[in-house]
Amino acid sequence: MTELKRYVRLNPRFDRDETLLLLKAEIVQQSTTDGNGVQNKYPLPVDWLRPTKDDGEFEFYAIPGDFSLNRSSSFQSGRVYGMDVTSGAAVLALLHDTYDCNGSVNSADGEESTRDDEQQLRVLDLCCAPGLKLCMLADLAPPSSTVVGVDISRDRIQLCKNIVKKYHVNQMTSGPKQLVANDDNNQASPSPSHATIRLYCTDGTYFGTKQLSGLVFDSNAEKQELLSQGKRKRQNKSARAREKRRLLELQHQEIIDDSGSTKSGQEKEKSGDSVHYRSLETNTCCIPLFDRVLVDAECSTDGAIRHIEKREASSKAPLWNDSNMGELVDLQKRLIESGFRMLKSGGRLIYSTCSLNEKQNENVVRWLLNKYNDAFIIPVSFIKHNHFEQTPSFVEEGSLEGTVRFNSLTNADKGVAFLPGTGFFLSKIGKR
Which of 66, 129, 159, 307 is spaced 20 to 30 A from 198 at the CA atom? Predict the structure, then answer.
């Protein structure tokens, strides 16, 4: 069986060459210490996930499967994210049209979809924990975009907060390009060129359709508070109260300032300045719709090799199985429907899971397409548009044309290079 690789993504706010030199030295050191005889070839670039050969905007590298990231200075210092390439493919497909078949997709009314790198985007990650895809969305979104993460679990959203703070707030681990100097007092302040990240602890199946609540984190507010508290390592009581008030204020602004009204039952549409608001029912709130939505839904994880190995080692039964599969699929349908509901006309949505079960993947997408006439598939392919000599054999087309599967289970015993640790399904959906 092929040894599973681990993957890291470089933090774009650190110097690329310095990070690679440090990571390479650590791999060699661990190899010597642990006696596993790793050759001096790592880290290896994952070229097939780059839009072009020379694109360094985001880079994934394969490292030995037994390399300990937790012991790595590259990881501890925030220079690299520990993230599987399949998750990166979902973010790439959402923000870029590189792997759209035919380069672009025409909607039913004949309008060609395009992508503007300079346009500020509103991006929603509906099932955001643990936060690695959320951070990648924030890293790659155009300057001054807003990236909103939602998760129903307090524990998972706390984990997400910790990861976002590490890579997008903490001055020591977020990277030197995260802060800029203030001309007045020469003090560091948040750079306006980076995306704002907001986290909500709430149910993603109805996010945006009921009274908006659950805002637990705003990256700009967090940076300002960090700068104001100076050398204090912990928030005191007044700082916590100030943070709570600030979050409530920001949450209120999301409803009031963007919609221009606090009255329910209203609808606001603007043509020409890309502002869209959903029609409201009684006692619901109005928030701006999103340009891009990622729904990486709860699933059975039957495609994730590492998850399977951990369950087998611990003898734990999977959370989702044949006895409650109907309940899981119903949840997935409600999540994809919620994400599509919050997507503006002309927007793009990625639905993904780390399952290879057709009931959880293609069938959920078919259900959405059958229910909503304004939903359509944007065919993507990591095979037809690969500009490198070798295309990974674990990349397959799904049973629904235009969808993609990364089938690591099928190829696990075939000696495939760069085998991901997670089987993955993704579908790209547009809204007319």
Answer: 307
